[in-house]
Fold this protein.
Amino acid sequence: MKKKKICILGSTGSIGRNALKVISDLSDRFEVSGLSAQSNSSLLIKQANRFRPKAVAIGEEARVGELRKGIKGKIHIYGGEKGIEEIARQEEADTILIAISGSASIGPTYSAVSSGKDIALASKEALVSAGHIITREAKRKKSTIIPVDSEHSAVFQCLRGAEISKPNRLYITASGGPLLKIPKRSFGNLSRKVVLKHPKWKMGKKISVDSATMMNKGLEIIEAKWLFGIDVDKIKILIHPEAIVHSMVEFVDGSVLAQLGITDMRLPIQYALSYPERYRSMLKPLDLTNTQGLTFDKPDIDKFPSLRLAYKAAKRGGSAPCVLNSSNEMAVRAFLRGSIRFTDIPLIIEKVLSQHRRIEFPSLEEIRKIEEWVKEKVEAFCLFRS
Ligand code: MG
C-alpha cells in the first residue's frame, strides 16, 4: 500500500507531537515528508532522526547549525521564515498539517493552500485573521481545508454526506475551561497556574489561557464562519463540561447531528490525516455507560467578556477579527510573562478594538501592518499598568 506522506509545520508543539504519535501508531499508512519548528531544535533533531523526512526547517535561523550537527544522513535543512515556507510548499507531501501557534501561522497556511494540497489545519488564528484570503485561495487552487480543531472536525464530519443545503445552526461545544466554577470576583488575582490548568484537554500555553478567558470559543466562532461559510449569528456556543459531544449541526428540518468521542486530540488529528478515509485507532473507544450524563448550558457572557468581544468583532468583519486575534495574542503573552493581570486581557482587547479603523478586505501586507500597530498599542497599555 502506498503510504500517505505528511508534512508537519509546528512538529514540536502539542498538536505536532500528537500527530507524530498517530503517525507512528499507523506507520503502515503514513510517513513523514517534512517537519518544521520555531525554536525547539533538540526535539526537532530527535524527530528528524526518528521519522527521516526529506526536509526540515527551523524558524530561528541561528539554530540551523545545531540541526546540521545533530541530524544524521541526508535531510535538507532550511532556516528562517523562508525555510518554513519551503516546507509549507513541499512537493512530496500529500497532506500538510499546520500546527503553528498563533498569527505566525498565517503566511505558511497561505503558502500551503496555494500549493493546492489537502491541508489539515490546527492553527485557527490563520482563519480568524486572514480567513477571507485563505479560503479564497483554497477555492482557487482546489485545496481542501480539513479542520483539526476538535469542534470543527466534529462539524466537518456531521456535514459529510449532507445535502448541499446550508445547515440551520452550528452548536460549538465548550468544556467551559478551568474557570467555569470559579466566581468572577476572584478573577483579578488568578495565578498563571490556575489559569493554565485545563480540566479536559492538555494543550499548549497560549490556547490554555484562551480557554480560561473563553476567547478560544470566540476564535472558534470565526474559524467556523470561514470553514463552513455560515453566518456568525447561526453559530451558538454550548457549555458541555463532559467534553464528549465535540459539536453539533442542526439542519433546516430540525434534525441535529452530533459527533462524539473521547477527549483526545489524536482523534481529530488522525481523521484530518486519513481523510477522506477512516483508519483504525489505538485509542480507547468511548464508553457511554461510564459517563455521568451529558449536560448542556448557555455560556455566561458577563463572566467571560471575551465572548462578547469576539461576536462583536466577527459581526464587524473586515480587519476587526484580525485586531481581536492579535491583541488577544499580545495580551496573553503579557499575562504569561507576568506583566498584566488576567482581567486585563479583555480590557486590552476592547481598548485596541475601539481605536482601530476598520479595513474591509485587508491584504496579507495590511494584516502584517495591523499586527505591528496592535503590538505597539498593547505594549503601551502594559507599561501603563506596571
Ligand atoms: Mg477547539
